[in-house]
Amino acid sequence: MIAKTIVKPTARLVEVFSAIQGEGLNVGTRQIFIRFGLCDLRCHFCDSAQTWDAPSVCKIERSPGLRDFEMHSNPVPLPILLQWVERQNLPSLHDSISLTGGEPLLHAPFLEQFLPEVRSLTNLPIYLETGGHRPEQLAMILPYLDSVGMDLKLPSVSGETHWTEHEKFLQLCFDANLEVFVKIIVSQRTDPGELKRSGMLVGGVHQDIPIFLQPVTPLADSEQFSQVPVLAPSPDQILEWQALMKQFVKQVRVIPQTHKMLKQM
Ligand code: SF4
């Protein structure tokens, strides 16, 4: 008889901590952030380049918001991550759990097992932040999600092009009745033709899906990895682009990265 190998689910993490969400529909709410390692995109404006490769260790906050980190080796077994989240989950403190990265969907087989358990343990809603380019992996964990913030990558700003995948991804979220919004990073180099195409794509799925235009936060010299300068758009550009996109969806909100102003992580 051949012994069956049981593979214990593990994940490569960057950090776990409690903070105030700085972007999108959940802005201002308190979340337990689980930041996963690995990303398969290379956006020019990326401020999380430390997540691209699988780190050998991760930073785990002991007490919510106190930044009293301890270091642990990767990969992390599922029951250990559950313990860390439970330790963060003080009564009435958090509004939801944020799965962020990197690209969390590169860990879809892990999430498929982790999410039902963390949900029953904490009773907190689950929010996914994603590049929105992996619909097959999204389908694996859709039943366990409550809300999704999908980045729509403009080629002129990010250097990435994923129109077809974005459309499939958004349709899956909408059909599953999830609370979903689209985040688009805009810079001085934004091509208005791409904004128009984005508006048509989102409005084509449903005009009630909100779009958040997020002026890029320029990177410090030490964070620059791309030769392409990424500069914030002018006030006139922002006003023009919001008006352009409101032709396709009902809500287009302009919000910068507020967690950087609040000095959150
Ligand atoms: S998807 Fe996110 S983590 Fe990945 S390169 Fe783009 S901005 Fe960075």
Automatic annotation (TrEMBL):
Reaction equations catalysed: 6-carboxy-5,6,7,8-tetrahydropterin + H(+) = 7-carboxy-7-carbaguanine + NH4(+)
GO biological process: tRNA queuosine(34) biosynthetic process
Catalytic class of the enzyme: lyase
Enzyme Commission number(s) of this protein: 4.3.99.3
Pathway assigned in UniProt: Purine metabolism; 7-cyano-7-deazaguanine biosynthesis
Entry binding sites for [4Fe-4S] cluster: C39, C43, C46
Ranges where the Radical SAM core domain occurs: 26-265
Binding sites annotated in the UniProt record for S-adenosyl-L-methionine: F45, C46, D47, G102
Cofactor binding annotation: Binds 1 [4Fe-4S] cluster. The cluster is coordinated with 3 cysteines and an exchangeable S-adenosyl-L-methionine. Binds 1 S-adenosyl-L-methionine per subunit.
UniProt signal peptide: none
GO MF, one annotated term: 4 iron, 4 sulfur cluster binding
CDD domains xrefs: Radical_SAM
Family: Belongs to the radical SAM superfamily. 7-carboxy-7-deazaguanine synthase family.
Oligomer status and interactors: Homodimer.
HAMAP family noted in UniProt: QueE
Function per UniProt: Catalyzes the complex heterocyclic radical-mediated conversion of 6-carboxy-5,6,7,8-tetrahydropterin (CPH4) to 7-carboxy-7-deazaguanine (CDG), a step common to the biosynthetic pathways of all 7-deazapurine-containing compounds.
Protein name according to UniProt: 7-carboxy-7-deazaguanine synthase
